[in-house]
Amino acid sequence: MIIAKLIGYLSAFVWIFPPLRQFRGRFFYYFLILALTDPIVRFLYALKFFFPNVTLYLLVSVGLLISLPQLNKYLKFVYLVPVFIFSLILIYFLPLWDLTVLIGITHLLILYVIFKYTINYIFMNGRIQIFHLLLITYETSMMLKFIDRAFAFRTGMVEFYFITGFQIILGILFCFIKEESPWFSLRFSKP
Known about the structure:
This protein is mainly α. It contains eight helices and two strands; from the N terminus they run ααααααβααβ. Strands 1-2 form a two-stranded antiparallel ribbon. Helix 3 runs antiparallel to helix 4, helix 4 runs parallel beside helix 6 and helix 6 runs antiparallel to helix 7. It is globular, with a radius of gyration of 17 Å. The termini are far apart.
């Protein structure tokens, strides 16, 4: 239990810093939402405002999707904002398991958008950004977390904290690596 609390506090602390490094970057709002999530959950918990964390994480997941810079403004306001509002309504009507599945689907969409953006970036610029690979790895780890939660594997909590530990390492890397960092890219020649 002490290790779980330590991992939780360390995660909340580490993820405060990536938005500072990503400031004025394309993914600033994505990292800002990630940075604010744990402190808000801990604050609400300290106030004895009990609610299933799944409800907040559904809103956070939709917020992360909306924050992606690859989506055009039309798509964000015509499609995703109503989805966000619809998610608010679903919180009151769906059981927790269904909400967890919706979070997983939302992160799958996020992963798809980031992966598509990365492929386009590689072909347009002739280089692979380590930042993009780390972002894909982070979203994949989020998918694994929600698969564990949705299907309640026996080792779910152990894997949950193991993945959180891995995400702490990614958070530290995001403190140093920015999307357009020339030092963290692999150039290749176009065929």
